[in-house]
Write a structure and sequence with these properties.
Strand content: 5-15%
Distance between the termini: 23 Å
Oligomer: single chain
Strand order of the largest sheet: 2-1-3
Number of helices: 5
Radius of gyration: 24 Å
Number of strands: 5
Largest sheet: 3 strands, antiparallel
Structural class: alpha+beta
């Protein structure tokens, strides 16, 4: 397997694994390789730093330690947070993900976000204690099972590639 850093024409960066170098070329030419963020089919390999490992001697004998001057603070580099992405192997998957994004947007724009109160709000509506309305929020797996067992109809929101799956 070969791992490539990839980039679309819009500048979105993501990763892909391929059986061999020819697989990347074939998928890119056929349009089966699309950007998971924008769905663009113009994908190319991005620059990558090679993974080079030193010898065992290098690990045992580090170079001299360099301490910063008294008035210099050590440089602290905060890595950018990773963005979860998914390479789409074909255009149909990109279309499905686009439809899921539109569905999720429609749901979240037309319903109330009740957050962690989802289970209690759903129960209150089911028992006629509050007005019926569209809501969404978070529920634990246990809360979800209990709501279904109580006969309360619920559906999960579509999970998108950019969500933490």
């Amino acid at each position: 397997m070969i791992h490539y850093s990839l980039q679309c024409a819009e500048g979105h960066e993501f990763e892909g694994w391929f059986r061999n170098a020819g697989d990347f070329d074939a998928q890119a030419r056929s349009g089966h390789l699309t950007c998971p963020i924008c769905g663009g089919a113009e994908v190319s390999k991005a620059l990558m730093a090679p993974a080079v490992s030193g010898s065992r001697d290098d690990a045992r004998a580090p170079g001299p330690a360099v301490e910063p001057a008294v008035d210099e603070a050590p440089a602290v580099q905060t890595p950018e947070p990773a963005v979860p992405v998914m390479a789409m192997p074909n255009p149909q998957q990109a279309q499905i993900v686009d439809m899921m994004r539109k569905l999720r947007k429609l749901i979240t724009e037309s319903a109330d976000n009740v957050g962690s109160r989802f289970a209690s709000e759903a129960r209150a509506m089911h028992h006629g204690e509050t007005e019926q309305r569209s809501i969404y929020g978070e529920a634990t797996p246990e809360d979800t099972r209990e709501l279904v067992e109580e006969g309360i109809e619920i559906l999960p929101l579509p999970v998108l590639p950019e969500d933490k799956n």
